[in-house]
Amino acid sequence: MTDVMVTTGRPELTRWRWAVTAAFGLGGITISAWGPRLPAIKTELGTGTATIGLLLAGVTVGAILGLLASTPVLHWLGSRRAIAAALLLIAAAMAVMGLALIPGSVPLVAVAFVITGLGIGTLDVLINVEGAAVEQAAGRTLMPMMHAAWSVGAAVGAGIGAACAALGISPSAQLIAEAVLIAAVALGTATGIPHSRRGPAGPPPQDRAARLRQWLRGWLDLRLLLIGVVMLGVELGEGSANNWLTLAVRNGKGQTAAVAALFLTVFAIGEALARIFGGPVVDRLGRVLTIRVTTALGVLGVVLFIQAGNRWVVLAGVLLWAVGVSMGFPLGMSAAAESGPDPAARVSVVASIGYFANLAGPPAIGLLAQSAGLLSALWLIVALFLTAFAAAGSLRPSPSVSEPADTPHPGT
Fold first, then answer.
1. Cβ(51)–Cβ(38) under 8 Å?
2. Quick one: average pLDDT of 97-119?
3. How many CB atoms are closer than 10 A to CB 323?
4. Phi, psi for residue 125 in degrees, rounded to 5
């Protein structure tokens, strides 16, 4: 974790907490900056849908590279400067993207997407490691609230894009303006993160080869892989909802397109609210029982969604589905960060599994839907929720680390 004294006072701890939460929010804004503008971007570049798909794949490639780069970046710069650098890299790449749209340069836009993904992947690991450090200093569960800030940021980013589209503001102007705003807020936010040693607490800094070996060993750590299984289950459930829920409501349940869109909105709100109010629940029940309760509710929700005919029962299923996916990622990140030495490397491993599920899950559902139908394909989510339920014991705190609720911090 970051090198923070246990005597951190309440004002400093509060400032630290909200600085990290703001970084989560900025991350959410960045990932939804271009989505609402894709039709206009496609027109400005004069390309087809396939080319746009390849450009978006660049974000994924960059994010995976960012996950791999996050650990050495943290060791090199320390948490405050690393988080600021990741946000500034994203802002710079978004500005380049906006500038490249003016002459319609597809290669430059492609490079900008890859670099943006690189910044997002790096930022994702860094803020989760820092968020876990805040939790340990505060002595209570805060990661779900921080991940809710990411969700809210994504909604804000989508809203900015929709508003710019409605007002006739070009994607290039929007992206450049957002880049300036993100850079300014990032510099202000970073000052709330305490200065730390370069890298997490532990032995003296290792050379690059040793750090790489340590990261690779994480993929052989059974507990870390089981945490990844929990995240695999809930992230596939989340990614599938984001990609397939509206189509399943429209075609599988016979509802209008407007109602289908409303159901997806309810899903997003339900997930955000579960994260906002989930911290005290985790402090009372512990991570393991919380994951088992939420994934069980998720199973019930998806089963209701598949089987029910009444749209109000289907809507109740959507809400339970949202609760089911809400806690696995934030609690999995907390558990990974404290599960052994070098939290950034360990978070990178489980984050990679979560990214894989979010990216590979929706296509897997689509392939199943071709032969079995979309509603029947959703039984895969039920199976993975049950797998996450079974693997929930991996989130239990290590013997040397008690549950947050059991370690009150003198400054809180």
1. no
2. 94
3. 22
4. -65, -45
